[in-house]
């Protein structure tokens, strides 16, 4: 699973996901990309599941870039614990995604297989996404 090696703060506030992505919102590396249409959190497990689905569909015949990284810790208190006594320990890591964020990119010769692979990856994610080709406006 993806996780940062070290972080500045062990626990962070929830924050908000309003607005559109100002950076990381175009196809920079590959020929096709998977762009988020709505905001949300993606866990490291979801990011990895989508990557595995994509690479299996492509039969490992293409170059894949993961454009997001889970660097926000999410805390969770144990089950059946009374209220109070502070914030719980860190449970998992999430990536904050805004509309317009490019999640994955693929470079391959076969365009239709690439689109199918990105669509398969989108089914693994809890947010709405769409496939974008290089040069298209999202």
What are the salient characteristics of this protein?
four-stranded antiparallel sheet; 2 helices; 138 residues; alpha+beta; Aldehyde Oxidoreductase, domain 3
Report on this structure:
This protein is of the alpha+beta class and 138 residues long. The protein has a domain at 32-73 and 92-133: Aldehyde Oxidoreductase, domain 3 (Alpha-Beta Complex), CATH 3.90.1170.10. 20% of the residues lie in helices and 26% in strands. It contains two helices and seven strands, in the order ββαββββαβ. The strands form two sheets. The chain has a four-stranded antiparallel sheet, with helices on one face. A three-stranded antiparallel sheet has the order 2-5-4. The protein starts with 31 loop residues before the first strand and ends in a 5-residue tail after the last strand. The mean pLDDT is 94.
What kind of sheet is the major sheet? Answer: 4 strands, antiparallel
What best-fitting shape do the alpha-carbon axes yield?
elongated
CATH fold descriptor of the domain at 32-73 and 92-133: Aldehyde Oxidoreductase, domain 3
Poorly predicted ranges: none
* Alpha-beta classification: alpha+beta
Cα-atom Rg, whole angstroms? 17 Å
CATH architecture of the domain at 32-73 and 92-133: Alpha-Beta Complex
The CATH C-level class name of the domain at 32-73 and 92-133 = Alpha Beta
Strand order of the largest sheet: 3-6-1-7
| Count of individual helical segments | 2
Order of helices and strands: EEHEEEEHE
In helices, the fraction of residues equals 10-25%
Distance N to C terminus: 29 Å
What is the β-strand count? 7
CATH homologous superfamily descriptor of the domain at 32-73 and 92-133: Ribosomal protein L16/L10
């Amino acid at each position: 699973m993806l996780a940062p090696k070290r972080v500045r703060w062990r626990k962070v506030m929830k924050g908000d996901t309003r607005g559109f992505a100002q950076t990381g919102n175009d196809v920079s590396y590959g020929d096709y990309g998977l762009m988020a249409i709505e905001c949300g959190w993606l866990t490291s497990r979801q990011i990895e599941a989508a990557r595995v689905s994509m690479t299996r569909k492509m039969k490992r015949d293409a170059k894949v870039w993961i454009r997001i990284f889970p660097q926000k810790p999410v805390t969770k208190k144990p089950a059946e614990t009374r209220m109070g006594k502070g914030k719980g320990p860190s449970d998992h890591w999430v990536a904050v995604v805004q509309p317009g964020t490019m999640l994955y990119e693929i470079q391959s010769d076969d365009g239709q297989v690439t689109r199918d692979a990105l669509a398969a990856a989108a089914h693994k994610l809890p947010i709405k996404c769409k496939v974008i080709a290089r040069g298209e406006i999202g």
